[in-house]
Amino acid sequence: MSVQIAIDGPAGSGKSTLARGLATILHLPYVNTGLMYRALTRRALDRGLDLTDGEALAALAGTLTVDLDLTLDPPEIQIDGRRAGPELTAPEVEGAVSLVSSHPAVRAVLVEQQRRLGQGGAVMEGRDIGRVVLPGAPVKIYLDAVPIERAGRREEERGSDRSLADELARRDALDSRTNPFIPASDAVRLDNSGRTVDETLREALRLVRERLGEAPA
Ligand code: C5P
Fold first, then answer.
1. 72 lies in some domain
2. How many domains does the chain divide into?
3. 37 C-alpha to ligand 1 centroid (Å)
4. Which of 40, 68, 101, 209 has the fewest CB atoms lying closer than 10 Å?
């Protein structure tokens, strides 16, 4: 299958779990675009770059080598030949990534790379996939959950006593200035509050089959 599936939604909405699950079942690459913004932020911080300088950041973005690691199931993005590690979820990265990703020049570079990665079909997740990166994708899902559940999920994933709810709310507020949290007009909104991972995955698969004109399993 070489179909494009776009999944958007705020931080902690369960996008990654859903996107990876769909990619595994449908035998498609899983492209987590947040990792690209995170990797750029990490590199900019390491080099002491001015994070308000969009042109310098865009030039740095152009030096990232992003491709698919086809040895993984599902294939996933790797940056400069390496899989994402814990350095990309460090607090200093989460604190700066919204500023880095707010620059149109940065987005232009990364969106082009994302389109290239999605060319042969992919499940791609982010904030602007359905509206900007893959506007022609036949399946678009906008995933949401109430804030308290989103914070709870992150806590389970990462383990922390910091105020994760505050941190997510802060990042969402900044991110929504760059990409308003508005689903694409042809996206289906799934609110997975109170649902298990499996329930959300089943609902998404039903939607995929409906959109692709296949009979439900
Ligand atoms: O999805 P994740 O939370 O890992 O994304 C990290 C950050 O990358 C977001 O908070 C946002 O600032 C940025 N991002 C973006 N556009 C995307 C994906 C992520 O601006 N498509």
1. yes
2. 1
3. 6
4. 209
pLDDT tens-digit profile of 68-112? 999 999 999 999 999 999 999 999 999 999 999 999 999 999 999
Q: Let me know if residue 169 belongs to a domain.
A: yes
What is the residue range of 102's domain?
A: 4-210
Under DSSP, the state recorded for 89 is: G
Closest residue by Cα to residue 115 from 137, 98, 99: 137
Decide if 215 is inside a domain.
Answer: no
Ligand 1 site, residue 200, Cβ cutoff 6 A:
no
Is this model's pTM higher than 0.90 or not?
A: yes
Mutation to probe ligand 1, out of 16, 99, 127 (largest number of atoms < 8 A from CB): 127
- pLDDT tens, 23-41? 999 999 999 999 999 999 9
Atom number of ligand 1 nearest to Cα 35: 4
> Residue 142 class from Cβ within 10 Å (0-12 exposed, 13-18 middle, 19+ buried)?
buried
The tally of CA atoms less than 13 A away on the side-chain side of residue 25 is: 15
CATH of the domain at 90: 3.40.50.300
